[in-house]
Amino acid sequence: MINVEKVGYHIAGRPLLQNVSFVAETGQLLAIIGANGAGKSTLLKILSKELAPDSGKVEMRGENLKSIRSNQLARFRAVLAQNNALAFNFNVSELVMMGRYPHFDGSPSKQDHEIVEYALQQTDITHLRDRIFLTLSGGEQQRVLLAKVLAQLTDIEDIYGLPHPVPQPKYLLLDEPITGLDLYHQHNLLEIIRTLTLRNFCVIAILHDLNLTMQYADKVLILNSGKTIAFGKPVQVMTPATIFSAFHIPVDIIHPPEYTHPFIVHSRSFSEQPMLEEKWGRSNGQSQGFYL
Amino acid sequence: MSITAEKPATKLIQIGKPFQQSVILTLLVVGLVVSACISACVGAVKISLSELYYILLNQLGIANQHFEEQQQLILTVIRLPRVLLGVMIGAVLGITGAAMQGLFRNPLADPGLIGISSGASLFAVSAIVLELKILSDLSGWVGLYALSAFAFAGACLATILVYQISRSGGKVHISTMLLAGIAVNALTGALTGLLIYLANDAQLRTITFWSLGSLGGANWPVVWVLLPFVCITLFGLPRLGKALNAFSLGESQAEHLGINAASLKRQVILFCTLGVGVSVAMAGLIGFVGLVVPHMIRLLVGANHRLVLPGSALLGAIVLTLADLTARTIVAPAELSIGILTALLGAPVFLYILLKEHKR
């Protein structure tokens, strides 16, 4: 699990994150939502050790992130970044093989090749293996990069369903992974992520789509101006009130009886205040989530 | 997780297969041996292949056959060191070009970008024009290579300057480095220009000759001076292939894959400065090899630096060996500057590659 304790980060005296605390469990997808400039990407950069927090600490596997060496970290933590400008004409299988780089020196082993093959299959891009990455469509590129992080976090035991000699949790950090994907591939990618949480991965993703968050996330962290607004299960903490304070937009939450999860709709003018009750909803018992 | 069958890729690009890649590297090695032999045999005094073979065996003390004194001398004193010099400098220019393009994540980069060549030029030209006292005071072996040593010092100083400018907060910023390189190149270029005003006719000739590059100064001591630097570069850079691959995704993504970006930058710059600095010092400015050769290799083996780096070294060596052969035979008994030839051949090849890439 990832334990974030009172993390703060400033740039030129301006606070980007203040006193952010939460716990991301293994086997769960934690979504970070919030308006532009809320501090989501900064938080993800701190979690991926790209930035060091000014205050507070981040623990991964019970160890302070600060004291884990980068090459060690790369063996159990992968990051799917948002901005992917590849400089040269690598083909797809070479790019996916880069995910194995933390695991070998010199040349890739037979097992590394097997894992790359497995990652290509899992993301349905085996037919693209010899294509040049830069000639692919945006959605295809995103799946290739997902295959890369998958290859980074997959052990040979996972492929054959063998028990791990030392079972270790894996961590996956995703920065807006579904932005730019069509509806089908958005769900496809989130389904893949769900299979990873079933394999006991700890996944943290920045998402912009509130309904997909409601549908797929196990936990949600709502940020506004670098501060936590709410943290907990989506159905419990994604309320018209929290969403209004995070996005300044009035929404209704509706829960048609034939669906397992509620929907968030915006259908009224900006000036109106949000309704504070769910339509058709169950009465909202406050249990595990908290509001700030 | 099922996906409705997508249209299979109609145009499979057939590069990047491991089998083909090793075949291409083998062919390059063969090509290098062949071009080195041709270059050693062809010239004012012709030497046949079998003569070359036996003279080399003689030299190694394996065979003992008698040859015409002249051929043996020409080969061992003139041709052989010159061919070796061409091979070494070509390999260094090719591999450093590939490494620089990887580091800057830009296919237009070459070692000259961070001031190596212009720094060497400035120092070499000032040594020539100001007829520095130190140069004439030094005698013997050191004196002979004082100009080279001076040029090498200039290359190192310019690179260190660029490197330091681009450092802030303990981090080297690649984009700042590019801009600092342009600025330092402009400055050293201007200073070199000023010095040329002061030069007399004889000095001008020396400067022109130096700035167009030539392997004419080849002899065994030059080869021995160059050898350790070349070895460091040729063994140091290919180790960084994996890291440079990851680096092409961007600095932060390389870090996510466990690559130490700071150490990678330091190593690439160090190896390039050592190799190119000493090459420029010995043979003057030889353009276009470092820029074009990696592009040609990428067309053959794909983008993987683990192949591009050794491939560029091999092809660079081939190209420079053949260019030097042409340079010294085409207007014989005079000699063309090799820099003219590499640019003359390199520029059209580069344009061809650009147009071809554009169409893809």
Automatic annotation (TrEMBL), chain A:
The keyword Nucleotide-binding applies. The keyword Transport applies. NCBIfam families: PRK13548.1. GO terms for molecular function: ATP binding; ATP hydrolysis activity. This is Heme ABC transporter ATP-binding protein. Residues 2-250 form the ABC transporter domain. The lineage of its organism: Bacteria, Pseudomonadati, Bacteroidota, Cytophagia, Cytophagales. PROSITE patterns: ABC_TRANSPORTER_1, ABC_TRANSPORTER_2. Part of the ABC transporter complex HmuTUV involved in hemin import. Responsible for energy coupling to the transport system. Keywords: ATP-binding, Nucleotide-binding, Translocase, Transport. SUPFAM superfamilies: P-loop containing nucleoside triphosphate hydrolases.
TrEMBL record, chain B:
CDD domains: TM_ABC_iron-siderophores_like. It comes from Xanthocytophaga flava. Pfam families: FecCD (PF01032). InterPro entries: ABC_BtuC-like, ABC_transptr_permease_BtuC. Gene3D superfamilies: ABC transporter involved in vitamin B12 uptake, BtuC. The keyword ATP-binding does not apply. Its main location: membrane. GO terms for cellular component: plasma membrane. One of its GO terms (molecular function) is transmembrane transporter activity. This is Iron ABC transporter permease. GO terms for biological process: siderophore-iron import into cell.
